[in-house]
Amino acid sequence: MSFTGKYELQSQENFESFMKAIGLPDDQIQKGKDIKSISEIVQDGKKFKVTVTTGTKVLHNEFTIGEECDMEMLTGEKVKAVVQMEGNNKLVANLKGLKSVTELNGDIITNTVTMGDISYKRISKRI
């Protein structure tokens, strides 16, 4: 199953509490909470390019399944991570105390990021 496509955020859960927990400033949280971000994914075999545009903020990460890479977090910090694929529709990454699971089902992509006992969930639809 190919992840390639553009996805628009449809809904999110626990945005504010999760962003506070990872240390995002309140002004950025308030600016970002109502913006419908667009995620663009380009998959070429095991190589991925992911660009998330939220208003004027653009987050860009590239990785190859199973290989260590540098990933930029929402806070702007760059960390080392390894992304694994489970089955043919799930990407799992552990980075600096966070676990990110991205699952594709048809035209719906669900991303759940967990830190300790706080989870943040985003549901986006292919456009």
UniProtKB/TrEMBL annotation:
<dbReference type="InterPro" id="IPR012674">
    <property type="entry name" value="Calycin"/>
</dbReference>
<feature type="domain" description="Cytosolic fatty-acid binding proteins">
    <location>
        <begin position="5"/>
        <end position="22"/>
    </location>
</feature>
<dbReference type="GO" id="GO:0005737">
    <property type="term" value="C:cytoplasm"/>
</dbReference>
<keyword id="KW-0813">Transport</keyword>
<dbReference type="InterPro" id="IPR031259">
    <property type="entry name" value="ILBP"/>
</dbReference>
<comment type="function">
    <text>Binds free fatty acids and their coenzyme A derivatives, bilirubin, and some other small molecules in the cytoplasm. Involved in intracellular lipid transport.</text>
</comment>
<dbReference type="Pfam" id="PF14651">
    <property type="entry name" value="Lipocalin_7"/>
</dbReference>
<dbReference type="GO" id="GO:0005504">
    <property type="term" value="F:fatty acid binding"/>
</dbReference>
<dbReference type="InterPro" id="IPR000463">
    <property type="entry name" value="Fatty_acid-bd"/>
</dbReference>
<dbReference type="GO" id="GO:0015908">
    <property type="term" value="P:fatty acid transport"/>
</dbReference>
<comment type="similarity">
    <text>Belongs to the calycin superfamily. Fatty-acid binding protein (FABP) family.</text>
</comment>
<keyword id="KW-0963">Cytoplasm</keyword>
<keyword id="KW-0446">Lipid-binding</keyword>
<protein>
    <recommendedName>
        <fullName>Fatty acid-binding protein, liver</fullName>
    </recommendedName>
</protein>
